[in-house]
Design brief:
Strand order of the largest sheet: 5-6-7-3-8-9
CATH architecture of the largest domain: 3-Layer(aba) Sandwich
Family: Belongs to the ABC transporter superfamily. ABCF family. YbiT subfamily.
CATH class of the largest domain: Alpha Beta
Strand content: 15-25%
Keywords: ATP-binding, Coiled coil, Nucleotide-binding, Repeat
GO molecular function, one term: ATP binding
Number of strands: 18
Number of helices: 21
Shape: globular
Pfam family, one: ABC_tran_Xtn
Largest sheet: 6 strands, mixed
InterPro entries: AAA+_ATPase, ABC_tran_Xtn, ABC_transporter-like_ATP-bd, ABC_transporter-like_CS, ABCF_ATPase, P-loop_NTPase
Helix content: 40-55%
Structural class: alpha/beta
Oligomer: single chain
Length: 641
Amino acid sequence: MISVEQLTVEFGGHTLFDSISFLVNPKDRIALVGKNGAGKTTMLRIFAGGQNPTSGRVSVPSDVSIGYLPQHLLPSGNLTVIEEAETAFAELQQLQAGIDEMSNQLAIRTDYDSPEYQKLIERMTHDTERLHMLGGTNFRAEAEKTLVGLGFERTDFDRPVGEFSGGWRMRIELAKLLLRKPDVLLLDEPTNHLDIESIQWLETFLATQANAVLLVSHDRAFLDAVSNRTIELSLGRIHDYKVPYSQYVELRKEQLEQQQRAFENQQKMIQDTEDFIERFRYKATKAVQVQSRIKQLERLDRIEVEDVDNSRLSLRFPPAPRSGTIPVEVDGLTKKYGSHTVLDTIGVIINRGEKVAFVGKNGEGKTTLVKCIMGETDYSGILRLGHNVKIGYFAQNQAALLDENKTVFQTIDDVAVGDIRTRIRDILGAFMFGGEASDKKVKVLSGGERSRLAMIRLLLEPVNLLILDEPTNHLDMRSKDVLKEAIKTFDGTVIVVSHDREFLDGLVTKVYEFGHKKIKEHLGGIYDFLQSKKIENLQELERKTIASTAKEPAAKAVNDNKLDYEARKELSRQIKKLERQQQEAEAAIDRLEKEIALLEISMNDNPTPEIFTDYEKLKQQLADEMEKWESVLLEKEELER
C-alpha cells in the first residue's frame, strides 16, 4: 500500500535514517519503536507529508488517505465539542449535498433518453455508493459514539472546545481522526491523555475498525494489545519483525546475543590470522600462505555489533526524613463541586513506607483526593497528615512552575545536593536530556520535555511522601524503568495515580479502586488486584464496572460497596477452591477418556466379558466426572457474577 524506498534523513552531519526501505500493507498495525532521538516522530511526519527526506521517497498511491495525530496538536476556536468532531465529515457532507442537488435535478428534468441525463444518473449512483462506503449519512450518531468511547459525557457535547484542558482537546482531535477513517493512521503517543476506559475503547477500535496503523507509544501494554508487526529504528537502520511488540523484544534480544557471539568468534579468527601474518611475514617459505591470509582478511565481510545502550543508571532518592507512623489518614471525607458529589464519606489509611496505587475511571475522584491531601481544595470530613510529613508532588502543571530563563542543567543543579551533583549529566541523559539538550533553555522545551524535567527535580528533593499523578505520560521505556527502580528503593511513602499497568507491577503493595463516589481497598500488587476481579487488565475492570452499574439495581451497587475486605477475601478463596476442583475434574476426564480409548482397542482385538464390564464402569465414571465438572463450573460462574 505504501512504499518506503531508500529513505535518508540527515541533520547537520548526523544521519538519522540511512537508505532504509520497507512496505506498509493493509491491516498492518506497526509498533514503531526505538530510543528517543532514533527518528520515530520524524518518520511519522515524513509519512504525513509534513517533512521532506534528504533523499529517497515515501510512495503513497493517490487513492490512499492518511490521518496523522501528532503529540501536541490541539483544536481551538468557538465550536462545541460535537461541532468540532463533526468537522471530520466535511467530505461526506459535501458529497451528500452534491447527491441532494443531483436528486433535485433528476426530479425536474424530463430528458430521460439524453446522454446528459444518463451521465447524471451514473454520477449520482457512483457518489451514493461512495457515501455508503465511507459510512453513510449518520454523522451525528458516529460522532457521539466515538466521543463517548473516548471518555466524554453527553453533557459535554454542547460545551465549547476552549473550556477543556489540553488532554481533553487532544481527545477531540483523536476523535476527528478516527471518524475520518483514513486508510493509514499515524498515531504519536495517543494514550498520553487517555484514561483506562478510553485506552480499552481505542484498542478495540484499532483492532476491529482501523485499516493500517503506524503507532509510536511507550505504553507496553497498549503496544501488545494493538501491534501485529514491530519496526525498530536504531542507528539509522531498521529492524523489521512480523510479530507483536512483546515477541519482538524476545526475538531482538536473541538476535543481539547471536550477533555478539558471531562478532566475538570472528574477532578471534581475525586475531589468529593477523598473528600468523605477523609471525611469518618475512619467511620466504610461508610467503604464499601469508599472502593468502592477507587477501582473506581483505575479502572478509566484517561483522559489526550494533551500538546498543545496555547501561543501567541506578538513581536513588535522597534518604527520606522520618515521618509519623501514619502519613495520611482520611475519615468520612466528602468532596462536592456545587451539587455534584465526587467523593462521599470515604476512609483511607496509608502507613509509613507503603507504596499504593489510585486506579479507576477519569472523573471518579483520584486527582480530587490528591488535591485534598495537598491542601489545594476544600472538603468536609477529616484528613490528617502525620508528623513531619514532607510532600513531593508531581502533576502535569508542575512543568509550568519551572524558571524559563534557566537551562536544563541549571534547573537540576539548583536542587541537587551532595555526590549526586557529579552525576547530573548522567541523570539528564537517562531522561532524554543528553548532550547539547542539557544546555537548552527551559523556555524552548516542549510540554513533554518540561514534564520530564519537573520529574527529575522531584527525584532529587528530600521528601518522605511522594504523590505522582500520571508520572509516565512523557517518559520513554528506559526512563520509566529508571523512575520505577528509584521509587522501589525509596524508603518513604508513595501514592501513584496511573493507568500504566506495567509501571505499577512490582511497585505498589496496595491498590485503591475509585468508583461510584467510594473507594475500595485491595491488598497486594496490581496483578493481585486484577486477579481478584477475575479480569486480565485494568481496562476490563473499567468496562465491567460500567456495565454492571448500568444493569444492576442501585440497591445492589450500594450493597457491593459495603462488602468489606474479609468478605471479598472469602469470596476469592471459594472461587480458587472451585478452580482447583475444576482442574482436578478435567484431569480425571482426560485420564478416563484415554483409558476408554485403550479398552475400545482391546474390545476389537479380544472382546471378553471382563473388558465389557470394565468399559461400562469407566463410561459411568466418565459421566460422573463430567457431571461434577459441569456443576463446579456453574457454581464458579455464579460466584464470579
